[in-house]
Amino acid sequence: MDLAYLWFFIVGVLFVGYFVLDGFDFGVGMSLPFLGKDEVSRRQVINTIGPVWDLNETWVIVAGACLFAAFPDWYATLFSGFYLPLLIILLALIVRGVSFEYRHQRDDIRWKRRFDGMITIGSFLPALLWGVAVGNIVQGVPIDADKNFTGTLFTLLNPYGLWVGVTTMLLFWLHGVHFVGLKTDGQVHHDAQALGKKLAIPAVVFAAGTVVWTIFLAAGREAPLLWAVIACGIIAAVALLASIAANWADRDGQAFAAGAVAIVFAVLTLWLALFPYVMPSSTDDAYSLTIQNASSTPITLQIMSWAALIFLPLVLLYQGWTYWVFRKRVTRSIIEKAELAGAH
Predict the structure, then answer these.
(1) Helix (H, G, I), strand (E, B), or coil: what is residue 146?
(2) For 208-221, how does the pLDDT look when each residue is reduced to its tens digit (9 = 90+)?
(3) pTM of the predicted protein model
(4) How far apart are CA 238 and CA 231, in angstroms?
(5) Count of domains forming the chain
(6) What are its GO cellular component terms (predicted)?
(7) 3-class secondary-structure state, position 330
(8) Which residues contact 118 (CB under 8 A, 6 or more apart)?
(9) Helix (H, G, I), strand (E, B) or coil at 336
(10) What DSSP state is assigned to residue 278?
(11) Could you tell me if residue 207 is inside a domain?
(12) In terms of residue numbers, what domain contains 112?
């Protein structure tokens, strides 16, 4: 296989990993106002992702670095044209990260509530805007002969882009709710399951709409991997329904695992619908960025391939070890004991 095509799929896998892992972080953050009835329960919710949220975010850094190195023209067009939404995502991630660290620095309920609100906003905006960005990449945007994006922010706020954005927001939210249900006990655990049931119908409606719409887009441009797009869409739908059914059956682990599978195949549906383009032009197909005309030199891709072969397994092992260490539930009694010890 040509290394450019290999790296198209490697970058896709990195974004899949990011959306699955940081996706439930976003979902937990968006759930905070609905599950945190008091300070103990709010700390329960936040502590479910406390040890791993920053590790999960490294996936997007690696994905961005690989995109820059493997497809410099794609990177340049994407980051110049999508500058404002990507800047909003970056600022939201910064605000969220700062809030995790600062909310416990003062024993003042108003202080903590402000940072809790920033966690929620900093989780909602990326969950929405990542979907808008990916939706526009798949659908195509105005690009000229010099590979420059010629639209505006309002160009990106089109029906398909917004629909995909709402879909990712709902899927991440549901994924995060299932993670809270898996990692907590008591009232927070039961509230998370109840919230998951309320999110189920809108998540299914928007996810189904995204899959069908994306298949029609891929069929319209005669995508060579249309069969794979359809297969991934079906698997994503089945996994999402299985996740919802598991939540109703009080099987938190299965609900979370099936939700992860649903996100994996939902992102693959979008990614495979893009192939062999990396950024289609809605102005003229001749101006579209493809895997071949946007990739780096063969020697660059060879060096990157050897680096990925060496370091990627190490990253996966470290992340797996981290999740194993922090695998236990965050119980209410643990938080209460920690508060009591802090008071003394």
Answers:
(1) coil
(2) 999 999 999 999 88
(3) 0.94
(4) 11
(5) 1
(6) cytochrome complex; plasma membrane
(7) strand
(8) 95, 96, 98, 99
(9) helix
(10) E
(11) no
(12) 3-188+273-336
